[in-house]
Design a protein that fits this description.
The protein is 33% helix and 25% strand. It has 396 residues and is an alpha+beta fold. It has a six-stranded mixed sheet, covered by helices on one side. Strands 13-18-16-17-14-15 form a six-stranded mixed sheet. The radius of gyration is 28 Å and the shape is elongated. The relative contact order is 0.12.
Length: 396
């Protein structure tokens, strides 16, 4: 790319379709200043003796906070090695830092120039595939040394346009960060409510009855799923979900045209790394043989409340004596929990379900924001969509 004379091969290697008007395809080393002399490796042992307020950055995140710093400025970072290069689509490869901090020797430090802002580099390479430029360090690990970084190609628009694009993306980042904070607050609020409501520390004013301690085996019919092969799922496709321990996030292993269970149930994973994980299930469904099932046998037990109560204590009954953790039916039957009146159970379940719904709504909003930002970046960072630069941006 000498004097920005670009060939078709240059475009292919850079994974660039075209160069927009007024933009250039430049190497990183000719666009930004690499300040790796600022890096300072500090062992965890030493860091433990100098804990403080200044962030200590690794290749993808803050690793610690210490009482001293090496630089005070604004930079972009990109990791020198690690598996984040393989996860570029879902895991950020770059960081944008500002203020007093220290960077370890596993991240490259890039400083702005009159040609390119470090924030442009941060945005451009944040989720970009650069694996074809990297050297391998064993299976699944890549290395980006300084010499390779210097030769890494990137599209570079005029500085005012870089800054305008950064402003636009920052608005989306603020919305994403705000939503993530709301999710964290919502989850913390639910955790507090669980600790208070499921233990009886906090009662609704209309309830005064004493709670009773009961065993699962006394109030539930205990069952188990069956062996359901992939072949059965493929040959017997239908609408009724098949739950398994491998799909714990309320996902399904598949769906078939018959069902084994109907109604309100509690299911849990009987063995594996997720043993003891509890879910509330409703409707017509199936479970594999690594799922246990609970069906209340008394009208004085609400199924949603049962799922909530067990989710807080079942992990204590998981056996770790073997390589494969287990919580089998017999042990689940011995689990005890506190049982208020059915009306109070329903009130507790209603409040906690509402908290879940609030979190779910926020998580859906977060997924939407991230997807929209990703689509916008694909347009803005390639020049397929141009922005209007005002005088304020030009003067920035």
């Amino acid at each position: 790319m000498k004097d920005n004379l670009v060939s078709k091969l240059d475009l292919i290697q850079a994974r660039v379709e075209f160069i927009p008007d007024d933009w250039k395809l430049l190497q990183v080393g000719k666009s930004l200043t690499i300040k790796n002399n600022f890096r300072k490796p500090i062992s965890q042992e030493i860091r433990s003796t100098i804990q403080g307020e200044y962030p200590y950055y690794g290749p993808t995140k803050i690793q610690d906070y210490i009482s001293e710093y090496e630089q005070d400025g604004t930079y972009a970072l990109i990791g020198e090695d690690g598996d984040h290069f393989l996860k570029y689509s879902t895991m950020a490869q770059t960081q944008y830092i500002s203020g007093k901090c220290t960077v370890n020797n596993h991240a490259h430090i890039l400083e702005s120039t009159k040609i390119c802002d470090s924030k442009w580099f941060y945005n451009y390479f944040n989720n970009r595939d650069i694996t074809n430029f990297l050297s391998r360090q064993g299976a699944g690990r890549f290395k980006l040394n300084k010499a390779t970084l210097e030769k890494l190609p990137m599209l570079v628009p005029p500085l005012p346009e870089q800054r305008k694009i950064a402003q636009i993306l920052s608005i989306w980042d603020k919305a994403i960060n705000t939503t993530e904070s709301l999710i964290a607050n919502s989850q913390q609020q639910k955790k507090f409510l669980i600790q208070q409501l499921l233990t009886g520390k906090k009662r609704f004013t209309e309830f005064k009855d004493e709670w009773k301690k009961v065993l699962v085996s006394d109030v539930c019919e205990i069952g188990r799923g069956r062996v359901i092969s992939k072949q059965e799922i493929e040959s017997n496709a239908g609408i009724y979900p098949v739950y398994s321990s491998q799909t714990l996030n309320n996902g399904v292993m598949g769906s078939i045209n018959t069902y084994d269970f109907e109604g309100d149930y509690v299911t849990w994973t009987t063995d594996g790394v997720n043993a003891g994980t509890v879910f509330y299930r409703k409707g017509k469904f199936n479970c594999t043989n690594v799922c246990g099932t609970l069906k209340p046998i008394t009208k004085f037990l609400d199924t949603k409340y049962l799922a909530l109560a067990l989710s807080q204590i079942s992990y204590k009954y998981v056996s770790h004596t073997l390589a494969n953790p287990k919580l089998m039916n017999g042990v689940m039957g011995t689990v005890s929990f506190m049982l208020p009146s059915i009306i109070e159970q329903q009130k507790i379940a209603s409040v906690l379900t509402a908290a879940d719904q609030e979190t779910d709504t926020l998580q859906q909003k977060l997924a939407y924001l991230k997807q929209e930002k990703k689509a916008l970046m694909q347009q803005l960072l390639t020049g397929k969509r141009r922005v209007k630069v005002d005088n304020e941006t030009e003067a920035a």
